[in-house]
Design brief:
Blueprint lengths: L29 H8 L8 H9 L11 E6 L2 E6 L13 H20 L2 E8 L2 E8 L6 H4 L18 H10 L5 E6 L2 H19 L2 H9 L1 E2 L2 H7 L3 E2 L10 H4 L3 H4 L2 H13 L3 E7 L4 H20 L3 E4 L2 H4 L4 H7 L7 E8 L12 H4 E2 L1
Parallel strand pairs: 1-11, 6-7
Antiparallel strand pairs: 1-2, 2-4, 3-4, 5-8, 8-10, 9-10
Helix pairs in contact: 2-3, 3-12, 5-12, 6-11
Amino acid sequence: MDRRHLISAALGLSAAAFVSRPARAATMTYQDAVRTSRAPLQVPPRNRELVRFATLAANSHNTQPWIFTARGDDITIAPDFTRRCPAVDPDDHHLFVSLGCAVENLALAAAMLGWRANPTVVGDNIVVALEPAPPAGSPLAAAIPARQCTRAVFDGRPVAPDILRQLEDACREPAVSTILITERAGVSKVADYVLEGNSAQMRDKAFMRELVDWMRFNEADAVASMDGLFSRASGNPALPAWIARPLLKLAFTESGENRKYREQIDSSAGIIVLTADRSDKAHWIAIGRACQRFGLQATALGLKYAFINQPVEVATLRPQFAASLGLGERRPDIVMRFGTGPDLPKSLRRTPELVMRG
């Protein structure tokens, strides 16, 4: 769910060589695509609009690993395993967390339109049964089009206690626990694990190949695929691949990335760690729902946040990280930093027509 600081000036290998892309109108600009996908919720057509808002959820590498099927008042969300990331997410943990994030967005959007969403996990799928209910807007639902993962340096200011309580409350979900870290020593300790995990990942050739596959280095590449990790969404310049490619080994270095992560974490007001009672698909989906509400609550409160999941992604490091948090045998699922920071360009999403079946 975390995603790497994009160094568009460093990685120049175009993802066009690896990811099949639907043809798009030549006149479509990046901003056009952002405005279309993040437009206000419309009443009809109901199912298409609910799916559109669901796709605005956080998801690992912006792979958008979901397929929606709408039949009557049931919307099924299924995993799209063709978009899995076996190097960073070999057990599909992040994939099912991403589905949980989408479920939460869909439920909040449905309430705005006068429907109560009742999700049930059925195998790998989530069946969301809709039933009429009084329309119920909320600050979290209103924040859906604005929410983004902001991979930038924050301003270092602390967050007031009442705001911290609201962030913690947003994460409340059965069988999910929240660890809030605001003391500087605790934040620095998490940073140590993030840097250790980042070093391990950058030395992993399979991880780096997979990461490059999902990178989009300029607006044209991003619009062509409507997915992936766009350079400017991480505060980096958009560059043609032929310029970026020669800079790969020079600019995208382990030490350089570790310095950036240390600065970003040190600039944050705090860190949230989510952990479930059990490690299975149903609980990973529950983690996703809590994770999405946290991001929406932060957005509604004018805060920014970003994933720093390296300590939970590196399997050999995960038990040490869990022990440092006092979790025993429980798996730490998601790690996020938060604070006050700048606006960055928003990532793109595929249209509902490309993710709906039947």
